[in-house]
């Protein structure tokens, strides 16, 4: 059966969501993107919608054009800054759904390549600049008193307005976890500021930006031959992502008291009608589709990423394929430009995905899904470095004899061994020796071997991650895991290293 179909793709979603250094703005922007197709889904037949794209059916091309004119006009007022790309296909054959969907997406890509971007003036000489976006300040913001701001651009203002709505929605979804009080009152709440993630007063506090993406999800969607299969997979994926994050919270909350007692994490509190609320050290920003982004206290970033992926792997999304995911954990200071921190997390996720794909290739250079595994890559920004992760590692993670001073990304199953090395190194060597060992590693294998021989002479041995050579000369296969281990020491609480990790 032929129908008129419209494919809508929102452009530059990541920049729209993550461009602000205020967490509340990011939360509101994410909610705007998540709910952007709600009006169309209510009025018209929707094949699928989510992740910044939608496929909608209409009876005639005239109806489709009129609907898009009305919707895009409303969008200018309710979600300024959002740029939709609309493609219309008059003869969409639903009986060959997969082929028709492929055709309209291909048409959309072709149109995008031919599209000449609109150049808009960010501001005019006679107007004040918005302190958040650099655009013209247009709206008085009564909700910005805590930020010492009076006027904002309409783009920033709508994000702030939607943040409260987004907060209510996510609190309602995780109500059974947040209502962790004997009297049924809220005990926990999600923070809406980066400096509410925890940390220690007076110190250079860090947050972790975590980006996780499912492996080969695009191929999985392409395999869906019918519209019903597509809808089922899309809904199942969204439910699985939320369920996985819920499981992370269920594991984290019982550990909070232990982390606090050991001084490994500090939690912020806020007054409430019936006492006080504990602000959780984690906050989801994007929680739907096949990719996830959340922020948390830097000291639980790797743990949260690992627990999320482990929970995601167990979800019943597709019985025919093993479901895996890769993650990037970008650890930065709280005042670091957030969009750059997000892009770093995304780049780290991509390096993890490249390694996962490489490991799945068999001897015939074919993809073997039975060998699929999940990987995590991480980076800790100690300064203001803004290069790509590849360039940073070329410049800063090579020894004098041209050996690699990192083994990242790591397979999820390998991380417990890495944590075991952290624990053992902390137990065996004082901080001064660990610092000295880090410096020696940059001199190369010969210097590292001499240092290790001296340690051995004094009765100390290094823990080996994957090969006994590491404990003897600091390297194996021209790579060393010890910089990874040393950098993680301050960003992974010993309380989270369980007995089964050892």
TrEMBL record:
Entry GO MF terms: nucleotide binding
Pfam families cross-referenced by the UniProt entry: Cas10-Cmr2_palm2
Domain of life the protein comes from: Bacteria
Coiled-coil intervals, chain numbering: 342-373
Alphabetical keyword list: Antiviral defense, Coiled coil, Nucleotide-binding
UniProt keyword Nucleotide-binding present: yes
Record bears the keyword Nucleotidyltransferase: no
Domain Cas10/Cmr2 second palm, chain residue ranges per copy: 207-359
Entry's Gene Ontology BP terms: defense response to virus
Listed name of the protein: Cas10/Cmr2 second palm domain-containing protein
Provenance organism: Candidatus Acididesulfobacter diazotrophicus
